Every structure is written in structure tokens, then in C-alpha cells.
Amino acid sequence: MAKQTGLPCALYCAGYDIGGDTQSFALHGGPALLDVTDITQSAFSRLGGLRNGTVDWVSYMDGAAGASHAALSPLPTADVVTTVLIGPIAAGCPALSQTSKQIGYDPTRAQDGSLTFAISDQSNGFAQEWGVALTAGKRTDTSATVGAFYDNGAGQSNGAQGYLQVFSFAGTDATVKIQHATTSGGSYSDLITFTQTTTAPGAQRATAAGTVNEFLKVTTVTTGGFSSLVFAVQITVNTTAVVF
User: Which pTM does this prediction carry?
Assistant: First the structure.
């Protein structure tokens, strides 16, 4: 378990930036431990079972438009995408995302009158996926843009998963892509193309199979035009073969 308080981190949920309303968070993850000790053994023997992951946090009460109450109080029954960036916030900083079910929005009123809420986002489908941020937290594009490259250190051959958080949008449409190349100044091709954005807030997960080249960049394109897109992107590049 990792617990975070006080450092410059970020917490995004379903296209809402709620880090400014978050008192603390804790990350729990990994496979369940299955006890398979048999009668010939003198100590515990365990195997890894079902993978799981949880992001728990404490939220302040904030009723402003686009703040934590608007994000969390509907208690959605559908999956939500949760993303945590471990600061200092920059392209390449550690990032964790998961497809989650939101459990609870339970208030606690302290003796001093403060009101906080406990939330638990429990992974559903893919467990937790650690990677790196490809945008320095939230990025704002006012037209189709080719972002700066990020050097991931080496190419890999086991595919990748990308996560997109869209906080606000004005325009007709925008499509966010993760592109890759073998050299920083080389020819970039599409690696992951997220579903076209026409509204906000929202978040999504997308995947790519096969080779992931060393150099990565985030690019936005459009067919009908847009004037503002505020978003964040994470990538998880697999170093070993994965099966979902």
C-alpha cells in the first residue's frame, strides 16, 4: 500500500481534476495471496491469485461547478477511469490509472465542523496499470497540435495501454493520439488513437499491440475544428507479455 499526503500530486477521475479537493489518498494493489500450504511444509506457501487494485481517498466538500461534489455525488454505476500522478508533475512522472467502480461517498463531520467524504475506487477489468504521464499534468490545445517527444528509454515489443482524461472541450471534435518513432526527430506513426472527443468531461482507456518504439509524443487532430481542449494522457508500456 502507498499513501500520499502533502506532495505535489494529481488525482483525476472521469475527466474531473479533483486533486485540489483531496486531503489524502492511498493506493492498494497486486495479486491476492492464496494460501496453498500443504501438510509436508513447515511454513506458509502462497501463490498469486486474482489481481486487484484500489484507490482510496478523502475528499473535501466542494460544491463548485466541476469540483469534487459534481464528480463524485452521482455515484455512477458505470465504470470510471481514475488516474493518479506522483509529483513533481511533469512529462515522464510516475502515473497510475485504473478502470474502476466508485464505492461510496460517505460523509464524516468532525467536531470542528469540517466535512469530508470517503471514496474507494475499486479496479474492474484490468487492475492497476502503472506507467508515466505523457503530458505535464493537464495540457491545453487550442488547435490541432503536435506535442514534444518523450524518450521512454528503449523500445518494447509487448504493446501498451493509454489513458486519456478530458476535462473541458470547446469545438466540434478533437482526436488525441499517442504516436511513436525510433528516433526523436524521425517519422512518427500512430500507436494509440483514442475515441474522438466531442464533449467533456470524460475519460477512456485504449490499447496497442506489438512494438512500442522508444520515442513517444501526444498529438491532437480534428476534422471540424476546436478552440480549446484540456486533457491529460498516461501510457503504460508493457515490458513483458500481458493477457487481459
Answer: 0.90
